[in-house]
């Protein structure tokens, strides 16, 4: 699916769609942002996201004197309007911030949590005693809905580091929801692909399927109900989401999904209560950090597995001179390193409030050096590989006796990322999601936003030995990997991506392209991708297979094209980044093609 940014159609009439309403609007008076530019350079501040309306919202806040945190929240809120199937207030995410005044990197874990009454057999069909089919039963259900963390994340970020109010930062997104945005091919196709799921709920059908079909490309889609929700948050603050009428309506939607009578989907009910919403809290914790070739790479600590898995991979790869290798040799080492790191991810990483996660060990240079011993420079190892021994390591090559475990990959692509840098040098890297495209498929009636199905990131079958087993109050393991890179204590890159469990490899490959293989940040993002997650085959984009497939198969790697039932497009990830140069200039870099291309903007462009 290509996300083609449509230009304003001069002199034409554009239909306005939203809740079944049609109105005419002259395109010449259209204030909407539709132009996508993948790379922009300049000064004064920069924003990179997948959508021009969202990037423009963040840039407007920077123009008004807001800082990177203010702009990041504004951008995220706008993405909730224009990318409602990827993110929104019904989901969660991970927020990373570099403070130029202190030189400190801080994080907010705004991951959704399992409700307090979630049973261990939440994913077992009581009628059969067997796990629900992942699709369509589990993904389209209340049982998969976690307690949303996005609004609490925005609140905490603004209170900790922002300079503007909720009311100020939500204003651009409220305007976009009210006046509408131009429907592009991706929005149309994603709606069409979810038609059966969306049609199963009266509230979702009314909002996203006016007259029973997906909004057409080139029309204007309005979401006045979401605009009203944003106005409520602007007026009353986050408590309006986690308490009162809205909280009751969220709980009611989960426990008694608004199914229509003619749907064939079973739609199991879920467990979120008003008490769960009142009790929700974000987690503030130290980021992970590793030093890679003189760069300090900061990542997200568990419950995300992004920081540990990228960090371990970098520590493994630091044992080799990738820059001095042929590209296929470097890619072979990249595949082998990520297989090892994913083995450790599966064995050890979960929510640290419930699992003793050896984060320090997984990001330890000696542990990485010991894991690097497993790599044969000439030959691919048999996959899956075994996890390492976190209790005994000294950086020397051991004899492995551990048993391998196949990587479980249930995460998909419907996530989004944004990166922001302001005029003072503060930087934000923020990844947020509602999980699958369209989340649970359930719109909270009258509120204009979809609820997540994030609990599908837990292992489907409960196993007491599994660090990612489902438990009440627990955060499911995530692969979201917001990353900030420092050099000599100063930020040089804010980067991240959507893509489910391929997020980790996408961010890692971008770093390797930029710092080992000599590409510019725009070239690093555009380069074809492949992802080895400790599985028998490497998932790869067609362009990657064409360019490197035969050479890598000679090492023993098996490559298979990307794409599945949720992501039929053969794409991996959608990187959004801002690079900070030594002279203070900024390069905002977004995808040139994937997901139809992203939107990079700077406050004062270079002439």
Quick overview of this protein structure:
By secondary structure, the protein is of the alpha+beta class. It has helices at residues 52-63, 68-82, 134-138, 150-161, 166-179, 185-193, 195-199, 202-208, 224-236, 239-242, 244-255, 274-279, 306-317, 327-348, 359-362, 365-372, 503-515, 521-526, 542-553, and strands at 13-17, 23-26, 39-49, 92-99, 104-110, 181-182, 220-221, 283-285, 288-292, 295-299, 415-422, 427-433, 483-487, 490-496, 530-531, 538-540, 559-561, 576-580, 586-590, 599-605.
Describe the protein's architecture and organization.
α1 runs antiparallel to α5 (166-179). The chain has one domain. With 607 residues, it is of the alpha+beta class. The model is unreliable at 1-29 and 406-412 (pLDDT under 50). 31% of the residues lie in helices and 17% in strands.
Categorize the overall geometry.
globular
Query: Which structural class fits the helix and strand makeup?
Result: alpha+beta
**Residue share in helices?**
25-40%
β-sheet strand percentage: 15-25%
Compute the CA-based radius of gyration: 23 Å
Q: Report low-confidence residues grouped into runs of 5 or more.
A: 1-29, 406-412
Number of strands: 20
Count of helices? 19
Q: What order do the helices and strands come in, and which of them pair?
A:
Layout: E1 13-17, E2 23-26, E3 39-49, H1 52-63, H2 68-82, E4 92-99, E5 104-110, H3 134-138, H4 150-161, H5 166-179, E6 181-182, H6 185-193, H7 195-199, H8 202-208, E7 220-221, H9 224-236, H10 239-242, H11 244-255, H12 274-279, E8 283-285, E9 288-292, E10 295-299, H13 306-317, H14 327-348, H15 359-362, H16 365-372, E11 415-422, E12 427-433, E13 483-487, E14 490-496, H17 503-515, H18 521-526, E15 530-531, E16 538-540, H19 542-553, E17 559-561, E18 576-580, E19 586-590, E20 599-605
Parallel strand pairs: 1-7, 16-17
Antiparallel strand pairs: 1-2, 3-11, 3-19, 3-20, 4-5, 4-12, 5-8, 6-7, 9-10, 10-13, 11-12, 13-14, 14-18, 15-16, 18-19
Helix pairs in contact: 1-2, 1-5, 2-5, 5-9, 13-14, 13-16, 13-17
């Amino acid at each position: 699916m290509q996300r083609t940014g449509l230009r304003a159609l001069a002199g034409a009439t554009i239909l306005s769609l939203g809740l079944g309403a049609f109105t005419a609007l002259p395109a010449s008076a259209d204030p909407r942002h539709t132009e996508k530019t993948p790379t922009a350079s300049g000064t004064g501040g920069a924003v990179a996201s997948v959508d021009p309306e969202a990037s423009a919202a963040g840039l407007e806040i920077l123009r008004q004197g807001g800082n990177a945190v203010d702009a990041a929240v504004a951008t995220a809120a706008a993405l909730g309007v224009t990318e409602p199937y990827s993110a929104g207030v019904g989901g969660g995410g991970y927020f990373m911030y570099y403070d130029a005044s202190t030189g400190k990197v801080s994080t907010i874990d705004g991951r959704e949590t399992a409700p307090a009454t979630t049973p261990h057999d939440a994913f077992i069909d009581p009628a059969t005693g067997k796990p629900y089919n992942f699709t369509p039963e589990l993904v389209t259900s209340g049982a998969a809905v976690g307690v949303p963390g996005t609004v609490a994340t925005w609140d905490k970020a603004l209170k900790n580091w922002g300079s503007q109010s909720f009311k100020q930062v939500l204003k651009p997104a409220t305007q976009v929801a009210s006046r509408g945005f131009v429907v592009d091919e991706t929005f149309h196709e994603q709606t069409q692909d979810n038609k059966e799921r969306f049609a199963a709920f009266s509230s979702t059908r009314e909002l996203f399927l006016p007259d029973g079909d997906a909004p057409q490309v080139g029309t204007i889609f309005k979401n006045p109900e979401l605009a009203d929700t944003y106005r409520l948050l602007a007026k009353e603050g986050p408590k309006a989401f986690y308490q009162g009428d809205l909280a009751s309506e969220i709980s009611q939607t989960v426990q008694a999904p608004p199914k229509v009578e003619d749907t064939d989907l079973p739609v199991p009910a879920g467990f979120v209560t008003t008490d769960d919403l009142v009790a929700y809290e974000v987690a503030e914790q130290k980021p992970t950090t590793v030093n890679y070739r003189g760069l300090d790479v900061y990542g997200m600590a568990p419950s995300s597995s992004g920081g540990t898995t990228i960090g371990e991979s970098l520590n493994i790869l630091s044992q080799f001179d990738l820059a001095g290798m042929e590209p296929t040799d470097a890619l072979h080492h990249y595949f082998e390193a990520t297989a090892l790191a994913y083995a450790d991810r599966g064995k050890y990483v979960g929510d640290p409030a419930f699992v003793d996660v050896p984060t320090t060990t997984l990001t330890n240079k000696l542990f990485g050096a010991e894991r690097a011993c497993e790599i044969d420079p000439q030959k691919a190892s048999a996959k899956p590989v075994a996890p390492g021994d976190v209790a005994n390591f000294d950086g020397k090559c051991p004899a492995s006796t551990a048993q391998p475990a196949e990587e479980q990959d249930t995460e998909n692509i419907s996530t989004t990322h944004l990166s922001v840098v302001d005029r003072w040098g503060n930087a934000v890297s923020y990844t947020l999601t509602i999980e699958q495209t369209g989340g649970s498929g359930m719109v909270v009636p009258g509120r204009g936003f979809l609820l997540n199905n994030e609990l599908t990131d837990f292992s489907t079958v409960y196993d007491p030995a599994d660090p990612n087993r489902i438990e009440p109050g627990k955060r499911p393991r995530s692969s979201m990997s917001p990353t900030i890179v420092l050099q000599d204590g100063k930020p040089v890159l804010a980067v991240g991506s959507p893509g489910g469990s391929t997020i980790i490899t996408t961010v890692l490959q971008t770093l390797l392209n930029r710092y080992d293989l000599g590409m510019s940040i725009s070239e690093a993002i555009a380069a074809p991708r492949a992802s080895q997650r400790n599985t028998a085959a490497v998932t790869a984009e067609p362009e990657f297979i064409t360019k490197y497939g035969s050479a890598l198969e000679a090492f023993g790697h098996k490559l298979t094209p990307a794409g599945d039932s949720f992501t039929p497009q053969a794409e991996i990830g959608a990187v959004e980044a801002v690079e900070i140069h030594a002279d203070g200039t900024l390069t905002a870099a977004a995808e040139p093609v994937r997901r139809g291309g992203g939107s990079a903007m700077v406050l004062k462009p270079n002439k």
